[in-house]
Predict the structure of N-acetylmuramoyl-L-alanine amidase domain-containing protein.
Amino acid sequence: MSFRNISYFIFSLNRCSIGICYEGRLDADGKPSDTRTMEQRVALLELLWKLHRLFPQALVVGHRELPGVKKACPCFDCEEYREVFH
């Protein structure tokens, strides 16, 4: 993993955050929905464990939980991950 490039997720937090994207988020009607497959759930958990080892004090939050964000993403409740990592 390389952390040299700054991503553009949250303007005020780009320098001190890691954004994770996944394919999905919309149901058949185009509405925000938790569409993660089991494979995506497993891969995300594995990635979060790797990142947790590197950044044990990091917080796991969804894009929509950050100040000033008016988006539905990630379309699932990140609490399931906070319970594991915090």
